[in-house]
Amino acid sequence: MGSDQGRSGHPVRQHARVLTASLVGTAVEFYDFYIYATAAALVIGPLFFPVQSPAAQTLLSFMTFGLAFFARPVGALAFGHFGDRIGRKSTLVASLLLMGASTFLIAFLPTYAMAGPIAPALLCVLRFGQGFGLGGEWGGAALLAVENAPKGWEARFGSAPQLGAPLGFFFANGLFLLLGLGLSDADFASWGWRVPFLASAVLVGLGLWIRLRIGETPAFSAAMEAAPPAAVPVRRLLRDHPGAVAAGTAGVVACFAIFYLSTTFALSFATTTLGYAKQEFLAIQLGANTFLALGILVAGWWADKTSPRTVLAAGAALAALIGLVFGSGLASGSVPLVFATLASALFVMGLAYGPLGSWLPTLYAVPVRYTGISLAFNLGGIIGGALAPFAAAWLAGQGGAPLVGLVLTAAGLVTLAGVFLARGQASAASR
Prior knowledge:
By secondary structure, the protein is mainly alpha-helical.
């Protein structure tokens, strides 16, 4: 595999470089996506769309946010194709480069006042490029960890990419918080929002440096020795594993819905409709983010002691339940209750997100595994990540905050259905 293999000691120390390479890419992914999500909630609408109602600008801003989710399955097919044919490492390097370049260039975009309709058009192009690169990121990162994991450690290794989510969120949220404290609203809207996009180059450079220093996974190498790769992996995937694609897609909906309702939608709703100061609510979210990391750690340990399927089902059921009180808690007007609502939701997200790295690979045979988990993860992202904030914003406009949580309830039930649909898929994948 590389220099990490064969060293004695604790499994985490043995594979520290691989786990770091897996984690840092997902940290960049969530940093990139969340800085755009935060900018979409705070400034993208007024800066990139002509003057109209604030509600319309918010919806248009969330539509550009959602565009990248629709690009992700396209990227999943493209990067999955090469990941299953030429290897995990080189494909992960390419996806990180594309993702990072698209994010970095957003910092230099003209606004609508500067360039007219060209501005939102260029924004959409870069958002598509960002989503296309992201389409191949998580699947490869998860396989890098799981396919190097020693027996009995699959779920804990598989949770390493997921730990990149709270890490990326911490850097993105913290940077926006510092900018908000140090800049006036006018300066932030004028140029301050561009700084996090420029800063993404640092994380991308670190990720590339680490990934160029690792080797190929043992499982992929063994599969290539046993048989030549499929000419068109997605064709074989859809022929041999159609049920697994459907189950995997449903299985990831809840984690995306919880994250983007607790972050993007909550920030927009709190700073507009509810009247919270931007810095105050960013600080609340920053504290609640620690519970996401805790949930992921608990999920990895629990899944190795039981099974990823058990933990994912528990997370999905809890997501459905917490949706019943999410909207009311968010709109309670009490900062401690708002914090408790977001912290509880993000902890439950950790339970639904943490097992995915070890659960999804069991549904697909090694020669189509990169394509399979990437496609399922990103199709589920469209439902849970792109549509959920938009649906929540619409429901809030129709019936107020209490209805918002119904999106989480629906997402939890969809994921629970995916877990049960996946029964038997793991045995089929091993054949």
